[in-house]
Structures
1.
Amino acid sequence: MSKKYILNFHQKATEKPITYLLVKDYDIKINIISAKIEAGEEGTLILEMNGKRLDEAISFIKSEGIIIKRMSEEIELDRDLCVDCGACTSVCPTGALRINRRTGEVELYPDQCVACGMCVIACPRRAISLTL
Amino acid sequence: MKKTIAEINEKILSGRAVAVTAEEIIDMVEKDGLEKTFEHVDVVTTGTFSPMCSSGVFLNFGHNDPPIKMNKTLLNGVPAYAGIAAVDAYLGAAELAEDYHGTDLYGGAHVIEALLKGEEIELYATGAVTDCYPAKECLHKITLDSINEAIMFNPRNAYQNYAAAVNSSDRTIYTYMGILYPHLKNLNYATSGQLSPLLNDPFCRTVGVGTKIFLGGAQGHVAWQGTQFKSDVERSELGIPYAPAATLSLIGNLKEMSSDFIQAAIMERYGVSLFVGMGIPIPLLDMEMLRQVAVRDEDIYTTIVDYSVPELNKPNFGRIDYKSLKSGTIELNGVKVRTAPLSSIPKARKIAQILKDWIHQGEFTLVEPVRMFPQDAKLKSLGTSRGGHHE
């Protein structure tokens, strides 16, 4: 099963073709969920990764000085507690929580969650939980 | 063409009145024009559901045996003001529990919500011992049913418009307008726009002391103008203020309310507030009133205020309309900014719908205000402090 990871790049690491090396050297199947990287600047990459040599691949990523964290697949929105005030939606960096413009209801798209946890504390009803 | 409240009430009682919501009226006016719509519709219903800190309940617990003159009361550890008669107290929504060891903030709003859900609340009180009130302290379990009265009285609710909050500083700030990221990354606003009660009657022509309203699921009333009421303000062509203006003091029976419309709110690193659901039915007395209630989000503007500046008069980034705000993103200084309402549109719609149903079923008649609000009210402030502790 694929697992989601968030990779934080420092300036130097952005010069190396990390995803290429992951595919070529470690035979990892990669799905890029989001990428905000510009050469010579710090950046963030969110990857879905799958493969027999995943542990080795992660060690390689770490050896490059990239901070890698497993992302949550366990964000939950308790509809009984949620009042659709939307406080979570403006702090969500990826749009995983957003308001349906027609109904006005808060909608959760777990696939887009990067587990930053801001929605958990922004929610006035404490309706969101995140298990890392 | 004119209608009176008495005429509309007659229609309500005979089941002939037509009420529509403040959203529905927009489409009707667009389709049928002002005159035809005015002939057809009698009342337009509004609604809002937002955190409103200036809320609370007067409680009368019933007497202890032997009697006690309570001078300090704690409800689940939350202090309620007891400087009134023996077993009366006022529990403010924003009051925080003393010595609360839970993981999250707990306050008056949580006690109010728990009461509404029928939960047992621990009441601890100390008394000032007198000949007529001999008891020194008491401890009881109370519920909403076990006490004599629970009168919701909110000194300031239903703000007519409210500032949209941003943060231009370098650090995240935690405010009563929610979490605001640095460098204008996000924006939080707090009205239901075209559904909002006082944005549909900007000069309070039909809203005054005594006006019957929806409050927390029950029928309540406007008790007075709200605190910090301001009417001498800059307005759009339609008369809608560009910044916070009129407010309302509201009163109602907590025992008749529902936890669907009165709910505690935690504002991270700020405190506790209370989501209050309220709505006002606006009678279409004349064509001018219809023009007002037909207002659309794109015609209602608010001011974008920089909450990172620790001064009373904060700098602003100009005005923005609610249609743009409700779209979820706006552009500010050339940057894309995420926007969030803090005010629930689904709840506001539900409130306007319930008011409409009550009117159609003859369960809700309108009350003519017994006193109108001032049209020239300005806001005063304390100014800068003279110093610290009083010596």
2.
Amino acid sequence: MKDPRLVKLGLGLAAPVLALLLAFLITSLVLVVAGDPVGEVWSTILGVPEERNIANILNNATVLYLSGLAVAVGFRMNLFNIGVDGQYRVAAFVAAVVAGEAWLPGAANTVLAILAAMLAGAAWAGIAGVLRARRGVSEVISTIMLNFIATGLVAYFLRRVAVREEGSNDIGTKEIPEGSRIPGFSIGDGPTEVYGFIFLAALAGFVYWFVLNRTRFGFDLRATGRSTTAAVASGISVTKMTVVAMLISGAVAGLVGLPLLFGDSYSYGSTFQSGLGFAGIAIALLGRNHPIGIAIGALLFAYLDEQSNPLQILVGVSPDIVAITQGVIVLTVVISYEVVRRYGVRLEQHAVARALEADRQEARA
Amino acid sequence: MPDVAPAVRLRGIGKRFPGVIANDDINIDVARGTIHAIVGENGAGKSTLMKILYGVQAPDSGTIEIAGEQVSLSSPADAIRHGVGMVFQHFQLADNFTVLENVVLGAEKLHGIGAAARAEITRISDAYGLGIEPDRLVEDLGVGARQRVEILKVLYRGAKVVILDEPTAVLVPQEVDELFGNLRELKAEGLSVIFISHKLDEVLSVADEITVIRRGTTVATVDPAGVTSRQLAELMVGSELPSPSTESSTVTDRVTLHVADLSLPGAEGPGQGRPLLDAISFDIHAGEVLGIAGVEGNGQAELVEAIMGMRPGATGSIRLAGVDLDQLSTRRRREAGIGYIPEDRHRHGLLLDAPLWENRVLGHQTRKPWARLGLIDRKAARADTERIVADYDVRTPGVDTLARALSGGNQQKLIVGREMSGEPILLIAAHPTRGVDVGAQAAIWGHIKDARRAGLAVLLISADLDELIGLSDRIEVILRGRMVGSFDPSHVTPEQLGSAMTGAGGAV
């Protein structure tokens, strides 16, 4: 008999592969309809990236990975945290202010700023958690609204604390002192450095996996996600789990903007990158909420983004075609997981039936 | 026999689901102008059958004939087109709409949404004596009136066959009488009514013919004039009744569970003020099985959930072996020694999409041998699951199989094994053999008897009166949230219990 865990792994891989093939197919159709050269577009996008591009891909993937993790924490408990976007901007702003003020020297300042970011993200997400647990407000609605409030709030406070950069209309927080930045490293002789924060992101992924799969807390969280009613009967306090899960999701979301802050911009300004929270939803879906899966999803999205840049120059096609692919992936992922899940359930039921039949025949013999 | 074709004829209907009792070779003839009752235990397959007849699910085998014509129903719209309408147990009405708006919703093409529709509603209401005013808001109507609106909705769509799923479950006795009056009007006008119930006295009083379903198949069709409710009960349960307690008593004088003055207020809202539990007091001693009898929905589920700490509004005192449970969370109560076999194993007992070993841990997250410093030792959990699979005869390829893939009986055996493994001193078993196969049923009865011999206190809730009589040392009857009678199982008949359950008889 085949090892059920191997079968499970095979099915787990089949779903995303199927989703990607479908997404590429649909994107190709769009290209055909628009009269763009399908073959040239794919050969540009799916080529092997050059060294300098690899650094960009890794950097972008680091940020997307944290965003995917934050969303995945909620997903594991059936909470749809759409507010990662607002949470990371509030958190990055708070971290930028704390790090810029430099109350502590060097690395201690960095640690303090990271903790402040996680706290800020947790607090912002916690609002939605408490509303859901105490008043039954859908976290989908409240986190979307909180995204808007976050935009306004950050813009307002940015004016209060900002310093104007020399010869520019951009405003931003005070620059983080050099000793408190997180140094990057080079791949080969490329000019772009890879964020040092990538190691912290990997660590976050490991902690996510360990907490969910090896601890009692993680068991309670997964059980609540699978069946609220069974969780209640087993003695889990669902209201408490809802709040805690949102706090953790928000804390992880608080990390999303930090690779940029400590490795690239060194201050939070009006041009700080936004929209990273929404990509996280797609990546968590694609990665099946599994830390390795999310990493692959994040790398894939970052790879597609990077490789699409020269499309305009080389083949005269807008790089936005990749946004279509990414959007379609979200849809095909949902479909193909459901198809594969049903197939898996059938397979398992057959296995159970076969085992029982064998039992019976043994009993007869 | 009548020369006209029956209104509905089902032949050899079969439906298989993984893990649940299916329909198997169901044969029913519903004559025109009659009330045909379909009775069976919970989980016997009544609902599946009705879903098939209403086009919600397709049968795997068999044929459906309506008025002599063979049909295939692939959706409720199909069923309605063939004149089959269904009134669900849970009403499907928009509260903030008027009766008229609710009735025409989805059927706007029939008579429009204005005066013609209003006239048609009034005509139907008068013709069948439903007494419905089309312009009242549904939220102002009582439960009985809402049910009549549902019936009218079905008639408005031209139904000749009306299916009612457990229609009396939500009604008080006077409303039940009114409903039966309405049904007799329908019958007089030549319509056929299919009436699903497990309340035997009601069925005997209203039906012209009764079909009994047991374990997914039709076992008999009888004339109500020729059977007693005891005979019906036997048909429903089959011959596999547990032998009424011939075993010697193991009841001790040590009180394990002491419940005093347990009350639970009803939900807020008009007409909902009746308390769900009303000053309930009882003791269960070590080695004693206390059976709770009652018509479904009279507070059994609430009683269990209040003891488990899942009902925040409950007042009164619950003590387990001298420990005051009132302020404890559900988890602490379980740790204090409660094993809990829930009524609905899919909703409360299992994580269907999780492997068996995770289901073994569920409810025992904080227990040895796997709980260490907030971590869960998977190896230990798997090993202990293997033990339960072997000791409790759970038929499964392995402990990594998903709970969903097992049959109902094997799921239940896993739950029983799990709940008996936490060193409980009190076992709460709510409908422990509902929807499981005969073999698993006997095994589960054996485990409950073993628990009693081992000195556990057992609280047994069941809709199966013979199961209650066979296993209990004492039976309490619950009616509208109150304990209304105490019976000695060695001297009580199902009829006596039945009348106490409906409030017709008193305590012995």
